Amino acid sequence: MKDSKYRSIVKLDFQYAHRFMNYPGEASYLHGHSGLLTLEIEGELDEHGYAHAIKEAKKAAWAVADNFHHATIFQEGDPLLDLVLQGYEQTGMKGTTGRYGAPAQALKHDLVWSFPESRVAVTKKPSTCENFCEIFYELLKDKMNVKKVEFRSSSLNAASKEF
């Protein structure tokens, strides 16, 4: 069985707020979602019968997703970004830890960067399900053999991409 390729599937769910800057309609207002990230990781079966160790995959995926969990996501250039960061500074809402109480690791990538102490992330493109697929792939591709990413923000909004 060592020559067969399998896919391990990792799912993470987290809550986030965002808005679509300059969008005509209610989506231009800050609003929240329960996001569901699904990763398909391809590999040959190891000596234990796994394509990829799920515990390790979840740990690596959460190291990235923690920057979005209970965070507000802004697109680059959004005038609300500085106001929110200033408001958090003025009210002392800084220093929030990540999942399980450990400090979240800041993201610094061309597609997304974060301010984990304020639970804020900034994306280069609008925070659509399609763009989240690309972001999570780019941030995780060097840590595991990600072949497919699906992101769902509701029962109506979802996207997937094969890599």
Largest sheet report: 7 strands, mixed
Order of helices and strands: EEHEHEEHEE
Unreliable sequence segments: none
Number of separate structural domains: 1
Shape: globular
Going across the biggest sheet, name each strand in turn: 4-5-3-1-2-6-7
Total DSSP E strands: 7
- The number of helical elements comes to 3
Secondary-structure content class: alpha/beta
- Stated plainly, the CATH topology is called Tetrahydropterin Synthase, Chain A
CATH class: Alpha Beta
* Rg on CA atoms, Å: 17 Å
Give the overall average pLDDT.
92
- In CATH, the architecture is 2-Layer Sandwich
Helix proportion range? 10-25%
Q: What would you give as the CATH superfamily?
A: 6-pyruvoyl tetrahydropterin synthase/QueD
End-to-end distance: 24 Å
- Our estimate of the beta-strand percent is 25-35%
How would you describe the overall organization of this protein?
- A seven-stranded mixed beta sheet has the order 4-5-3-1-2-6-7.
- The radius of gyration is 17 Å and the shape is globular.
- Strand 4 (112-115) and strand 5 form a beta hairpin.
- The chain has helices at residues 54-65, 79-91, 129-140, and strands at residues 5-18, 31-44, 71-75, 112-115, 120-123, 146-152, 158-162.
- It has three helices and seven strands; from the N terminus they run ββαβαββαββ.
- The protein has a single domain (5-162), classed as 6-pyruvoyl tetrahydropterin synthase/QueD (Tetrahydropterin Synthase, Chain A).
- The protein is α/β, with parallel strands linked by helices and 163 residues long.
